[in-house]
Design goal:
By secondary structure, the chain is mainly alpha-helical. It is built from 22 helices and 2 strands. It starts with a helix and ends in a 10-residue tail after the last helix.
Length: 546
């Protein structure tokens, strides 16, 4: 077995072991499986020859010979960077999920959670190393189902809506991509000489009009994953409702699957499409940058702010790819890796303050119904949600500042390198678009600095001192869901989940069975906000010592 096969099979083996092992071992097995994948990824990175072009660590065997479908794996400079990113973030995600049943209030479901988590990791790793279009598509679709359940069952109060929206958007794009794959196969040559192999398809000389239609089909499949305006509306909902570790995976890796697909297929295979399509992609990159920055500035929820900032940062990747210059493409790749690390860091840090404060609002919304939905006292509408955190949580403030300044592109940090190279490459091809994109950098600095000013500077809010230490809600005067008389998320009818009505309900008050057969504890589910902060904050302690 080659290294690339071991890379994605390690999580699959972990899934099987989780099914057979006692539930209490699920976390350790998931961590071991992802550590094995990380070790393999590091071995691939160390053994990768940067001076030689083409694919390396190639594994190729016939899969379905009648249709020339192969088990074809390989990595180049683009793949190996994203494989390393995926392996690192996957391990971080397992650690952040260590007490997922407490964060999501789904007691006894960790076995199901880590089974689905490893399936998601296997799909992501396989996607970045697949060199056959059918295998590429299989891994692309393999990530859809586990993400749907991880959001729809372990997410927040609007989890079903967010999960279904994510599923339908992604499935819509996948249909167009599948049609484009089949069309590309039949146009690749006469019967008997057709192929799904990406390197061989890249060498075909297809007419421009054919490339144009294929370019559009693949674009629709990848644009939703990035996401590119106007297909972006699923992302903020998914981020807000997803548990913190899944938000890290979503921003850190899944968004990169869309930009990777544009670079791998639209650029490598269909790069000779009309100039109009590349100009179109560059314009959308500029729209993403500016629109995402303005939307982020208007957000009151920290998770939504980071989600919209991700839309803006992906715009630089699109601009670099559309430029088709060495600087632009290298800048796009660097920006993918940089954003994956920085966005993951931001979502982890947001999770710290949420566990302690029981909310994420920079300023409480004016809508009382929305506040009640998220378990906040409606009388706080319009008030400042945080203030003076630098006084009570200095280490946390330092980490957040590093992530913010890295994301806004401060020289000396990774965000600057990716954005600078993307703009430098774009300047050679689309100088006007590169110039306009700088507006997004300025707006990005504005909303990040404004967030720091509102959350971390000034006088601490009344009761804010409890954020500096682990304390119980009783000592802090916190009622149900962090507000006296506030609604408890745990009171929601959990049976009305994504599979309701199909004879399989994922949850309930007591005596339910989780998706993989583990009985959920029959004791009363704790209400949000009534669980001692000392229990739920253990997983975050290393990130927020002050």
């Amino acid at each position: 077995m080659g290294l690339l096969s071991l890379l994605w099979l390690a999580p699959v083996v972990g899934m099987v072991v989780i099914l057979l092992a006692p539930r209490r071992w699920s976390r350790a097995i998931a961590l071991l499986a992802t550590l094995v994948s990380l070790g393999v990824a590091l071995a691939i990175g160390v053994g990768f020859q940067t001076q030689s072009g083409g694919l390396q660590f190639v594994e190729r065997a016939a899969w379905i010979p009648a249709f020339h479908i192969e088990y074809f794996l390989g990595v180049d400079g683009l793949s190996v960077a994203l494989v390393l990113l995926t392996a690192v973030i996957s391990v971080i995600g397992v650690i952040a999920s260590w007490r997922i049943e407490e964060e999501s209030h789904r007691s006894g479901t960790e076995k199901s959670y880590f089974f689905l988590y490893l399936l998601l990791v296997a799909g992501m790793l396989g996607f970045f190393i697949a060199q056959d279009l059918i295998l590429f598509y299989v891994f692309f679709e393999l990530t859809l189902l586990p993400m749907y359940f991880l959001i729809g069952y372990w997410g927040g109060p609007r989890r079903e809506y967010a999960a279904i929206k994510f599923f339908l958007y992604t499935l819509f794009g996948s249909v167009f991509m599948l049609v484009a794959i089949l069309a590309l196969y039949f146009l690749s040559g006469p019967a008997g000489a057709r192929t799904f192999a990406i390197p061989e398809l890249a060498a075909k000389n297809l007419p421009v009009w054919v490339l144009n239609w294929l370019w559009l089909g693949f674009y629709l499949g990848f644009a939703i994953k990035v996401p590119i305006f106007p297909f972006h509306t699923w992302l903020p909902d998914a981020h807000v409702e997803a548990p913190t570790p899944i938000s890290v995976i979503l921003a850190g890796i899944l968004l990169k699957m869309g930009t990777y697909g544009l670079a791998r297929i639209n650029l490598q295979v269909l790069g000779d499409a009309s100039e109009g399509w590349w100009r179109f992609l560059a314009v959308l990159g500029v729209v993403n940058i500016i629109y995402g920055a303005f939307c982020a500035m208007a957000q009151l929820d920290m998770k939504k702010l980071v989600a919209y900032s991700s839309i803006g940062h992906m715009g630089f990747v699109l601009l670099g790819i559309a430029a088709r210059t060495p600087e632009g493409v290298n800048g796009a790749i660097f920006q993918m890796v940089s954003h994956g690390l920085l966005s993951g860091m931001l979502f982890l840090i947001v999770g710290v303050v949420y566990v302690r404060a029981h909310h994420r609002f920079i300023v409480y919304p004016e809508d009382p119904a929305l506040l009640q939905l998220y378990g906040v006292d409606p009388s706080k509408a319009g008030q400042k949600g945080f203030g003076g955190l630098a006084t009570v949580m200095p280490v946390y403030t330092f980490l957040m500042a590093v992530a913010f300044f890295g994301s806004l592109g401060l020289p000396g940090l990774s965000g600057f390198v990716g954005e600078f190279l993307s703009l430098l490459g774009a300047w050679k091809t689309y100088p006007l678009y590169a110039l306009v994109s700088v507006i997004g950098v300025v707006i990005g600095a504005a909303y990040f600095l404004w967030t720091i000013q509102r959350m971390f500077l000034g006088q601490p809010n009344p009761g804010g001192e409890r954020l500096a230490r682990r304390s119980s809600p009783r000592a802090a005067g916190v009622g149900s869901a962090g507000a006296p008389g506030g609604p408890a998320w745990g009171d929601a009818p959990l049976g009305a989940g994504p599979l309701a009505g199909n004879g399989l309900e994922l949850g309930g008050r007591s005596g339910d069975v989780d998706p993989l057969g583990d009985a959920v504890s029959r004791r009363e589910k704790p209400r949000w906000g009534r669980r001692p902060v000392s229990e739920t904050s253990k997983v975050w302690r290393p990130f927020c010592r002050s």
